Amino acid sequence: MEREAGEAIRQLSVLIEEERQALIRGDIGRVGELSNQKSQLMEWINRPGGSEPADLQALNRDIARNQTLLQSAMEGVRAVAARLQTLRAARSSLTVYDANGQAKRFESDGKRELERRA
Predict the structure, then answer these.
(1) Which residue in 10, 25, 40, 62 has the most C-beta neighbors within 10 A?
(2) What is the pTM (predicted TM-score) of this model?
(3) Where are the domains of the chain?
(4) Beta-carbon neighbour count of residue 22 at 10 Å?
C-alpha cells in the first residue's frame, strides 16, 4: 500500500509540474484537462491509509504555488474582459464634456457613416 501511495504522489507531483508549465505558457485549456487526473489521484492519496502527512508537504507547497499562478491568470482574464467591454462601449457611444465639466453621452445607432456637410 505504501508503495502505491508513493507512486500516486509521484504521479501527482508530475501533473502539478505540468500544470505549472501550462499556467506559465498561458495554456488554460491544458490546466482544465489536468484537473480531472489530479482529482482522481488526490482522492486516492486522501483515502484512509493512503499516505503519510510528511509525504504531502512538498505537494502542498507546489499546489500553493500553482494556486498563486492560477489566481494571477484569472486576474489577467478579468482585466482583458474589462478592457474589451470598454472598447465595445467606446464603439457604441461617445462621451463628451461641456464647459462646466458635465458629461454628456451620445449613443450610436450602430451605423458607421459620417455625415458630410459643405
Answers:
(1) 62
(2) 0.68
(3) 2-107
(4) 20
